[in-house]
Model the fold of this input.
Amino acid sequence: MRRLVLLFELIWCFIQMYIIGVYILIREMVQGHYSPSDKELPDSTGLIAMVTGGTEGIGLEVVRKLISKNVTVFIASMNKSKAEKIINELKYDYPSSQVYHIAVDLRSLKSVKDCVNEFLEYRRPLHILINNAGVMLTPYTLTTDGFEEQFQVNYLSHFYFTSLLLDKLESSSSPDYTSRIVNVSSAAHVFGGKNLDKLISKCDGLFEYSPHYAYTTSKLAIILATYSLHKELKGSNSHITVNAVHPGIVNTGLYRNVHWSIKWLMIFLAKHLFKTPKNASDSVVFVAIAPHLDGVSGGYYDNCKSVQSCALSYDQSLQKELQCRTKDLLQQKT
Done:
């Protein structure tokens, strides 16, 4: 009986995610894509940004847009040779650009700390932190720290990354610019659940793991943590803002793990209807450098507009529980 219940839950999570996917896709087609003007994304010479996962997909286009606005960019990613190739291509297109690579594997908290320490050795300010890297619908895999992969890569490691860089972000703020944290989430967070044990605990049986639940809940966790951090920073009179962004349904490599039964359809839709990574990067860069958003914090953005996230994301008890459990996990592992 328990197996039947678990199997039903797996199927329901699967169906839910694609229902919301169709809804979001239709909504995006109806509302159209908003492309920020040069006034909204002005020259930003002097600013320094860190972007995780900046060698492909949305992250690469975020890096490209930032350096086109004269932002100095540090790419935090796993593949050094790929990053070096990308950097050479970017410098060919933007000869005066300043773009660097620091290795990080978000499946390892130690690697996250090493990445931060390497950046600190540059003795440079940090004005923008963009937590962009992510994985989606991966088969059940445990990281080197013993966590489910989507939970750690999408959420936990970025939480740790951010906490280690808060002092640097604070000291880099000025009267002219408030340091910003941009967390890339997803509208799929609406089907995330409040059962944190299910997200954190190891799975022992075949039907205990839903990649769809793990993905949507990791994206919900990002928004919950965004709101928690906003309150924490506001309470300490910090000069750092933090916001979350839904970049859209985008044609990237994230869909490589989609179930074979609908993969053909996803490939067709991605080619003809999904946003391009270039378009998807607009909202992320908009929240990162738009002048009128200086000092604006605790929001969730879609298509360059502040919108409401799901009702569960505003649950203060869940925000607090997630924050406490996250800090406990990090204390145990680091």
In short: The beta strands are 48-52, 72-77, 99-103, 128-131, 179-184, 240-246, 300-302, 305-307.
